[in-house]
Specification:
The complex is a heterotrimer of chains A (338), B (492) and C (127).
Chain A (H helix, E strand, L loop, with lengths): L1 H18 L3 H21 L3 H26 L10 H19 L17 H11 L5 H9 L1 H22 L5 H15 L3 H24 L7 H19 L1 H7 L2 H24 L14 H40 L11
Chain B lengths: L4 H19 L2 H29 L2 E4 L10 E4 L1 H28 L5 H20 L3 H20 L5 H31 L4 H7 L7 H18 L8 H7 L2 H26 L2 H7 L2 H21 L4 H21 L3 H32 L10 H4 L1 H15 L5 H15 L3 H27 L14 H19 L2 H15 L4
Antiparallel strand pairs in B: 1-2
Helix pairs in contact in B: 1-2, 1-4, 2-3, 2-4, 3-4, 3-10, 3-14, 3-19, 4-5, 4-10, 5-6, 6-8, 6-9, 8-10, 9-10, 9-13, 10-13, 10-14, 12-13, 12-18, 13-14, 13-18, 14-16, 14-17, 14-19, 14-20, 16-18, 16-19, 17-18, 17-19
Chain C lengths: L1 H23 L3 H23 L19 H32 L4 H21 L1
Classes of the chains: A mainly alpha (338), B mainly alpha (492), C mainly alpha (127).
Chain lengths: 338, 492, 127
C-alpha cells in the first residue's frame, strides 16, 4: 500500500502548491513533487523512468525555475484571476476521466489488454532479437528507436529555441567586469569550491558509467547526459559563468548538440546504405546481435551528447542573461514598446 | 532508394537542421534549407505518384513488424498533405532571406532556418507516421519550433502571443497524450492500423469514448477551431512575416489531417459519428466559427489580423465539410485544405513584402499601395477573390464542392448560410481594396517601391497556382476524391 | 471496484489540480509549475497502467517470470524529455516577457497591450 501513501502525499503537495503565494516555495514543492513521483515510479517497477524523473523533475526543471525566479521576483500577485471558469473546466474534464475509468482494467491486473498484445514479444523475445537484458533499453533504442530520435530532436529544438530567445552577443569587456565581481563573490565559498573540485571528476565518471550501463540496468544516454551536464553546471555555479565558459566554449557546445543528432541519424542512414530499413541495426554487422549492440551503443552516445550539451546551453543562457541583468542594466528600451 | 521514400521525406529536413547549425553562414544556410525543402517537395511528388498508382505504402522503421515497431503508412490522404506542406514550405523559403533582413537580428539567422526546418520536419512527421505515439512526438517538435519562431517577431506582443500559444498547445498535446494512453490501455497497441482493428471490440466501453473525446478536444485546440481559437490571431499577427506565411498555409491543415485521421481511420466512421453527435456539434461550431471570425475580421485595423481571423473562418468551412461525413463533403474539405494553403500562402507572402517595403501592415498604411506596389497588391486581391470563392479561382472549386455536398444531403439552409458567410469575406477584402486603390497615400513624398523579385517570384507562383488549379481542377480533385473515397472504403 | 480503480482516481485528481493551476493562476511561472504537475500526473497514469501485480522491473534476470510492461516506460521517458523541453522554452519566454513588460502577471500584461492598442488607434484616428 506504499503507492497509496505516495499518491496521498502527492495530492497534499499539489494542493499546497495552489495555495502557495511564494513562488520560491511553490517551485521547491514542485521539485519535491517530482522526487515523490520518481519514488512512485520505483514502486511501479519503472526504474528507468524514476531515474529520469528524479534528474529532470526534481533536478533540472527546479533549477531552471529558481534561476528565473531570481530574475522575475518571487511573489505571486494575490488575485487568482479566473477561479470559477477554471473550476468548471476542471470538473468537466475530471468528471469525464472518472467516467472513463469505470470500464478500465483494474490496477495491476495481469489480463489487461496492454499486457497481452504487444508487450509479450518485448519481454519474451528481446533477448534473442536484441541481446540485452534491460527491456526498456531494447524497446527505446531499437523497437521504437524512431520515437527516441524524435525525443532527441525535441530537446535539440528546445535548445535552439532558448538560444534564439536568450542568447546575447557578449563583449569581452562585459565578461571581464562580471568576472571581477564574481571572483570576489566566489572567494567566500572556498571550502565548497575545493570539495566540488574533487567531486566533479567522480560525477563525470558516474555519467560514463550510466551511459554504458544502460544495457544492463537503469540508465542510458539521456540520464548520463543530464548527470554530465549537472557536473558542468555545478562548476559554473561555483566558479562563475565566465570561467566555465572559458573551459567550455558556447559555440563548441552547440556543435556537440548538432553532432549528437547527426550521429543518431547517421546510424539510420548507414543502415539504409547497407540495405536495411532506417534504424535496422541488424545490417550494421554480419551478426545481427552484434549489429544491434553497435547500433544501440552509437545512438545512446548521440542521445548523451545532445542532451548534455543542450542542458548546458540552456543553463548557460539563463544564467548569462541573469548576470547581465544584475551587473549592468541591459538596454531594453530598443526591444520594448514600439 | 525508391522503397525508402517515406522515411527520406521526413529525414531530409530533419538532418538538414543540425547541418545548418554547423554551416552557420546565413547565405549558405538559406540555400541549404531551400535545397532540403525542395528535395522534400520532390520526394512528396514521387510518393504521391507512387501512391496513386500502387496504393498504400507501408514502411517499417528499424525493420520491426508493425505493432511492435513504428510504421510509416502513406496513403492518398497523407501523400496529398505531404505535398501541400513541403510545397508551400519551399515556395515560402524562396522569399525568406530577403524578408528576415528587416525583421530578425542578423545573429539569429541560422537559428531561424534551423527552427524552420525542424518545424517542417515536425509537420511532415505527424502526417507520415502510422503510429499514434509517434504523432505526439512529432507534434511536439513542430510545436516547440513554432513557439520559438513566433517569439522571434519584432514586437514584444510576439513573446506574449508565443507564451499563450505554448500554454494552449501544451494543454492540447497533453490531452492527446491522455487520449492515446486510454486507447492504448484498452487495446494494447499504438499502431493506427492495428488500433482500427482492435478498437471495435471495445467500442462500447466508456474508456474508449473518453479517449475519443480527449483526442478530438486536443486536436481541436491545435486546430484553433472555434471556440478554441483564441491563441491564433495574435500568434499569426506578431510572428515574423515568413513564419506567418508558412504556418497560415500549413499548420492548421496538419491539425485538420489529424482530426480526419483519428475519426475516420483510427476510430472508424461508424464509431465517430454515432457515439457522440459529432455531426451536429461540428456543423454548428463550424458555422458559428465562420460567422464570428469573419465578422471579427471586418473590424480589424491590422491586415495580418484580418487574414488571421479569416483563417479561423476558413477552418470553419473545412469543419462543415468534414461534419457531413460523406465522400463529397470530405472531398470538399480536402480540396479546401489544398486551396486555402495556396490562397493564404500568397496573401501572407504579399503581406511580408508590404512589411519589407512599408514597415508595417496597419490598414491605413495601405493607402496608395495599389499604385505603388501594383504586383504585390494584385496578388492580395486575387488571393482575396479566391477567399471569397469567385469563379476561376481555387476558392470557387472548394466552395462548389462544399455546396454540392450540402445539397446532396438536402441541407439547403446550411448551403445558404455558407454563401452568406462568403459575403462577409467580400466585406473584409473590399476594405483592403478600398484603402489600397481609392485612397491617397498618407504622405505623397514617401515613394514606396514595388517588392523585390525574390518576393514576387514566390508570390506569383502561388497566385498563378491559385488560378491554374481554379481552372484545371483535374489533378487536385482527382487526388482529393481518391483520398476521400479510400477513407470511406469505397473503391474509386 | 474501489480498490481496483482507486489508484486511477487519485491520479486524475492530481491531473486536475495541475490543470486548475494552469487556468486559474495569472502568474506566468505558476502556470508553468501547473503545467509540469499536469504532465507529471499523466506520466504517473501511464506508469501505473504498466504495473502488473507481482511483477518486477523489466530487466531480464534468471528466475523471474513476471515483468511489468516496458512499453509505457519507454513512452514516458520520451514524454519527460518533451516536458522539460517545453518548460525550458516557456521559462525563457517568461524571462523575455519580464524584460519587456516588467511584469509576469497575465492581467498586467494584457492591460498594457490593450492600452497600447488604444493609444495607437487614437493617434491614427486623429491623424
Amino acid at each position: 500500500m506504499i503507492n497509496i501513501v505516495l499518491l496521498t502525499l502527492l495530492v497534499v503537495i499539489a494542493i499546497a502548491i495552489i495555495r502557495m503565494k511564494d513562488l520560491f516555495a511553490a517551485v521547491m514543492l514542485a521539485g519535491i513533487y517530482g522526487l515523490l513521483s520518481a519514488s512512485f515510479f520505483v514502486v511501479m517497477d519503472a526504474v528507468d523512468v524514476a531515474f529520469t524523473e528524479a534528474a529532470v523533475g526534481a533536478g533540472i526543471s527546479t533549477l531552471l525555475m529558481f534561476v528565473v525566479i531570481t530574475m522575475t521576483g518571487r511573489k505571486e500577485k494575490s488575485i487568482r484571476h479566473k477561479p470559477l471558469p477554471a473550476l468548471f473546466v476542471v470538473i468537466i474534464t475530471g468528471g469525464l476521466l472518472i467516467y472513463g475509468t469505470l470500464d478500465m482494467p483494474y490496477f495491476g491486473s495481469e489480463d489487461a489488454p496492454i499486457h497481452n498484445h504487444t508487450s509479450p514479444r518485448y519481454i519474451n523475445d528481446s533477448m534473442q532479437e536484441i541481446g540485452i537484458p534491460n527491456i526498456v533499453t531494447s524497446v527505446l533504442a531499437s523497437y521504437r528507436a524512431f520515437d527516441t530520435f524524435g525525443e532527441v530532436v525535441v530537446i535539440f529544438t528546445a535548445g535552439i529555441g532558448v538560444l534564439t530567445l536568450l542568447s546575447i552577443a557578449r563583449t569581452k569587456k562585459n565578461d571581464e567586469e562580471i568576472e571581477s565581481i564574481n571572483d570576489s563573490m566566489h572567494q567566500q565559498h572556498l571550502v565548497v569550491r575545493i570539495i566540488a573540485k574533487m567531486l566533479i571528476p567522480f560525477i563525470f565518471l558516474f555519467a560514463l558509467y550510466v551511459q554504458f550501463h544502460g544495457d544492463f540496468g537503469p540508465g542510458g544516454g539521456f540520464q548520463a547526459g543530464v548527470i554530465f551536464a549537472s557536473a558542468i553546471i555545478l562548476y559554473a555555479m561555483l566558479f562563475g559563468l565566465v570561467t566555465a565558459r572559458k573551459v567550455i566554449n558556447q559555440i563548441f557546445i552547440q556543435l556537440i548538440a548538432a553532432l549528437g543528432v547527426l550521429l543518431y541519424g547517421s546510424v539510420g542512414i548507414v543502415s539504409l546504405m547497407n540495405g536495411g530499413n532506417f534504424f535496422d541495426y541488424n545490417v550494421l554487422s554480419s551478426n545481427p546481435i552484434t549489429g544491434q549492440h553497435l547500433g544501440i551503443l552509437l545512438i545512446e552516445w548521440g542521445v548523451g551528447c545532445t542532451v548534455a550539451s543542450v542542458i548546458v546551453v540552456i543553463f548557460f543562457n539563463f544564467a548569462g542573461r541573469r548576470e547581465l541583468q544584475q551587473h549592468k542594466k541591459p538596454s531594453q528600451d530598443k526591444e520594448s514598446s514600439k | 532508394m525508391i522503397t525508402h521514400l517515406p522515411i527520406l521525406q521526413v529525414i531530409t529536413p530533419l538532418m538538414a537542421a543540425p547541418i545548418c547549425l554547423l554551416l552557420n553562414r546565413s547565405q549558405l544556410v538559406w540555400m541549404f534549407s531551400l535545397l532540403a525543402s525542395g528535395l522534400a517537395f520532390l520526394i512528396s511528388i514521387l510518393l504521391l505518384q507512387q501512391v496513386m498508382i500502387s496504393g498504400v505504402i507501408s514502411y517499417e522503421l528499424g525493420g520491426w513488424q508493425a505493432p511492435w515497431g513504428i510504421e510509416y503508412r502513406i496513403d492518398k490522404l497523407n501523400a496529398f498533405l505531404l505535398l501541400i506542406i513541403s510545397g508551400i514550405s519551399t515556395v515560402v523559403l524562396v522569399a525568406a532571406q530577403t524578408s528576415i533582413e528587416k525583421e530578425i537580428p542578423k545573429d539569429k539567422y541560422t537559428y531561424f532556418y534551423v527552427l524552420y526546418l525542424l518545424s517542417l520536419t515536425g509537420m511532415l512527421g505527424i502526417v507520415a507516421t502510422g503510429d499514434a505515439f509517434n504523432v505526439f512526438v512529432f507534434l511536439e517538435i513542430s510545436s516547440l519550433s513554432a513557439y520559438a519562431l513566433i517569439a522571434m517577431g519584432q514586437k514584444r506582443q510576439a513573446l506574449w502571443a508565443s507564451y499563450q500559444y505554448l500554454i494552449m498547445g501544451t494543454i492540447g498535446a497533453t490531452f492527446i497524450l491522455i487520449g492515446i494512453g486510454l486507447m492504448y490501455q484498452m487495446t494494447g497497441t499504438l499502431n493506427m492500423a492495428d488500433l482500427s482493428q482492435r478498437l471495435p471490440e471495445v467500442a462500447q466501453t466508456r474508456t474508449v469514448f473518453v479517449s475519443f473525446v480527449f483526442v478530438i478536444v486536443g486536436v481541436c485546440l491545435k486546430l484553433a477551431m472555434f471556440p478554441l481559437h483564441l491563441w491564433l490571431p495574435n500568434a499569426y499577427a506578431y510572428a515574423p512575416s515568413i513564419v506567418t506565411a508558412f504556418f497560415a498555409a500549413t499548420a492548421t491543415k496538419v491539425a485538420v489531417y489529424l482530426l480526419i485521421r483519428f475519426t475516420f481511420s483510427v476510430f472508424g466512421l461508424s464509431f465517430s459519428f454515432t457515439t457522440i453527435p459529432l455531426q451536429t456539434l461540428f456543423m454548428a461550431l463550424g458555422l458559428i466559427g465562420i460567422f464570428i471570425a469573419s465578422a471579427t475580421a471586418i473590424y480589424q485595423k491590422n491586415v495580418k489580423h484580418i487574414f488571421a481571423y479569416s483563417s479561423i473562418a476558413q477552418i470553419g468551412y473545412m469543419i462543415v465539410g468534414f461534419s457531413l461525413s460523406t465522400v463529397t463533403g470530405l472531398t470538399a474539405t480536402l480540396l479546401h485544405m489544398f486551396n486555402h494553403a495556396l490562397m493564404k500562402g500568397a496573401i501572407f507572402l504579399a503581406l511580408a513584402a508590404v512589411i519589407y517595403r512599408v514597415g508595417n501592415v496597419e490598414l491605413n498604411h495601405f493607402r496608395g499601395l495599389g499604385r505603388q506596389m501594383p504586383l504585390t497588391m494584385a496578388a492580395i486581391v486575387i488571393g482575396g477573390l479566391s477567399l471569397i470563392g469567385v469563379p476561376l479561382t481555387v476558392g470557387f472549386v472548394s466552395k462548389w464542392y462544399l455546396l454540392t455536398a450540402l445539397v446532396e444531403q438536402g441541407w439547403w439552409p446550411i448551403a445558404v448560410l455558407i454563401l452568406l458567410g462568403s459575403m462577409l469575406a467580400v466585406v473584409y477584402v473590399w476594405r483592403i481594396v478600398e484603402v489600397a486603390y481609392f485612397k491617397a497615400p498618407l504622405d505623397e513624398n514617401i515613394k514606396v517601391k514595388e517588392a523585390p523579385v525574390s518576393f514576387l517570384i514566390p508570390i506569383w507562383t502561388l497566385v498563378i497556382a491559385n488560378i491554374y488549379f481554379g481552372i484545371d481542377t483535374r489533378l487536385s480533385v482527382q487526388v482529393a476524391k481518391g483520398a476521400a473515397q479510400s477513407l470511406f472504403g469505397v473503391s474509386p | 471496484m474501489i480498490i481496483g480503480l482507486f489508484n486511477h482516481w487519485v491520479v486524475i485528481i492530481l491531473m486536475m489540480i495541475g490543470l486548475y493551476i494552469v487556468i486559474a493562476h495569472g502568474n506566468l511561472i505558476k502556470k508553468l509549475v501547473g503545467l509540469t504537475i499536469f504532465q507529471t500526473s499523466v506520466f504517473i497514469f501511464y506508469i501505473s497502467i504498466a504495473k502488473v501485480d507481482g511483477g518486477t522491473a523489466p530487466i531480464l534476470a534468471d528466475g523471474i517470470t513476471q515483468y511489468s510492461n516496458p512499453l509505457p516506460h519507454v513512452l514516458i521517458l520520451t514524454a519527460i524529455v518533451v516536458g522539460i523541453a517545453t518548460t525550458a522554452l516557456g521559462l525563457s519566454l517568461v524571462v523575455r516577457i519580464k524584460e519587456t513588460y516588467k511584469s509576469i502577471e497575465e492581467e498586467e500584461i494584457q492591460q498594457q497591450d490593450n492600452e497600447e492598442q488604444l493609444t495607437k488607434h487614437k493617434t491614427e484616428d486623429s491623424a
